[in-house]
């Protein structure tokens, strides 16, 4: 059984009197331990898809299963509990708390979600900071480190709860080419070390080149590469 399964999933948003479709009848399986990327034009539905897998939103129709549990019908509290137990998130803007040190930012999920004992928290935080080569920066605040270092901290924070899945929305968008390559390599290393499944939403060809599986979304639908090429040549908008 696939780690993540979407069956005929659709999502629409109400804009005034108009129902605006964001995803249309998407079905896809994601296996354990892969680097899976969803690509497509801006507004194609990539981020919506990640939000649905991440229990940040609910589909209008269809079924979503993550790690054997159906999540499309969870309430707010149950969704939050599931996210804390099974999922990690990486964002393009890092989303580090500016008043907390590197160490405290990585420790934060263990305090808020897992409520792990102090000695266990320290061991886990230091181990993951060492893995992402940030142990030497653990006492610095986010504005005292570089963009690439911030993303390393974000990766560590996402991994510290030992989630089954990490959802990464444009994780390299704010990084220069060399730093982006290092972060992508780091995530592959973390996948190999911890068995974590990474699911990306991105425009970045550097991630696409390193992905195990690439899915293309256009106008809320999963399409083949040949369908996407035909869409572009026929004048379909690409706002990437």
Folded structure, characterized:
With 240 residues, the protein is an alpha/beta fold. The protein has one domain: P-loop containing nucleotide triphosphate hydrolases (Rossmann fold). 38% of the residues lie in helices and 26% in strands. The strands form two sheets. The chain has a six-stranded mixed sheet with strand order 6-7-8-3-9-10, with helices on both faces. Strands 2-1-4-5 form a four-stranded antiparallel sheet, with helices on one face. The longest helix has 18 residues, at 177-194.
Spell out the blueprint of helices and strands.
Elements (H helix, E strand, L loop, with lengths): L3 E12 L2 E13 L4 E5 L6 H8 L7 E6 L2 E2 L5 H11 E5 L10 H13 L3 H14 L15 H13 L5 E5 L7 H18 L2 E5 L3 H6 L2 E6 L2 E3 L1 H9 L7
Helix pairs in contact: 3-4, 3-5, 4-5, 5-6
What is the rounded distance between the termini? 34 Å
Q: What percent of the residues sit in helical stretches (DSSP H or I)?
A: 25-40%
Strand order of the largest sheet: 6-7-8-3-9-10
Overall spatial form: globular
Q: Which range does the strand content fall in?
A: 25-35%
User: What is the CATH level 1 assignment?
Assistant: Alpha Beta
Q: What is the H/E string?
A: EEEHEEHEHHHEHEHEEH
Task: State the helix count.
Answer: 8
- Mean pLDDT metric: 89
The low-confidence runs, each spanning 5 or more residues with pLDDT under 50, are 226-234
Class of secondary structure makeup: alpha/beta
CATH homologous superfamily (4th level) name: P-loop containing nucleotide triphosphate hydrolases
Number of strands: 10
Name given to the CATH architecture: 3-Layer(aba) Sandwich
As a whole number of angstroms, the C-alpha radius of gyration is 18 Å
Per CATH, what is the topology? Rossmann fold
Largest sheet properties: 6 strands, mixed
Q: How many domains comprise the coordinates? A: 1
């Amino acid at each position: 059984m696939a780690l993540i399964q979407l069956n005929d999933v659709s999502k629409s948003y109400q804009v005034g009197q108009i129902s605006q479709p964001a995803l249309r009848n998407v079905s896809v399986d994601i296996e354990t331990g892969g680097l899976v990327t969803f690509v497509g034009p801006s507004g194609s539905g990539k981020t919506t898809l990640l939000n649905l897998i991440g229990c940040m939103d609910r589909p209008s129709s269809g079924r979503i299963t993550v790690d054997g549990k159906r999540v499309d019908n969870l309430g707010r509290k149950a969704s939050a509990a599931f996210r804390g137990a099974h999922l990690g998130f990486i964002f393009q803007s890092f989303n580090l708390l500016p008043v907390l040190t590197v160490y405290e930012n990585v420790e934060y999920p263990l305090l808020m979600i897992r409520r792990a004992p102090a000695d266990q928290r320290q061991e886990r935080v230091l181990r993951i900071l060492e893995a992402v080569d940030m142990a030497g920066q653990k006492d610095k605040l986010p504005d005292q480190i570089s963009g690439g270092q911030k993303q390393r901290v974000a990766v560590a924070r996402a991994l510290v709860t030992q989630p089954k899945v990490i959802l990464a929305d444009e994780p390299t968008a704010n990084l220069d080419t060399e730093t982006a390559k290092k972060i992508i390599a780091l995530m592959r290393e973390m996948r190999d070390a911890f068995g974590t499944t990474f699911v990306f939403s991105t425009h970045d060809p550097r991630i696409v080149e390193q992905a195990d599986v690439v899915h293309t979304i256009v106008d809320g639908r999963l399409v083949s590469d040949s369908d996407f090429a035909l869409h572009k040549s026929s004048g379909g908008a690409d706002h990437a």
